[in-house]
Amino acid sequence: MKQIVVTVFVSLSIVTASSCTAENKPANVVVNSATTSSPAQPALPAATFDAMASGRKVYEANCVACHKADGTGGEVVIEGKKLDPDDLTSAKIKGFSDEKILGYIMNGVVDEGMPAFKGKLSEGEMRDVVKYIRTEIQKVPAKAAEPSKANQLAN
Ligand code: HEC
What we know:
This protein has 155 residues and is mainly alpha-helical. Helix content is 54%, strand content 4%.
């Protein structure tokens, strides 16, 4: 009987020892991860440029007819209806957060003739047009046009 217990103990410890060795393989060691992210971030200006080009396209195709190329709006007759599109360069709209402008683009002010673009434009296109309005139409310095800053202004 004593003999059997010893044998079981020995074989158990062999199993434990071997599984332990298997787990100790250094598979997950990350060698100097700092070298993989370079300190320079050249992707940002390119992305900003793309957003601006896309925003301009969206604006010209969907907003210019009412708000004019320079964003100043004013009375227009569209499909026989007299409308008074807002001046997007006004202090009031400069003070809106990005999210608030986005909300107007998505939901419109349908009673007043501002169409809702939800379903017609993707959210990305609507965000691009907000960037375009900030940068090219309102000429708000790029830093102030960051969503976090714009939200602070509106609050
Ligand atoms: C068919 C004409 C028309 C088109 C096209 C149009 N708008 Fe408007 N927009 C209006 C009118 C009219 C108003 C004023 C609504 C009101 O009186 O509250 C307005 C208001 C706005 C406002 C201010 C909302 C408020 O009440 O403060 C924003 C921002 C705006 N438009 C952005 C846009 C953008 C961006 C586009 C293109 C994606 C666009 N609009 C396309 C007619 C238009």
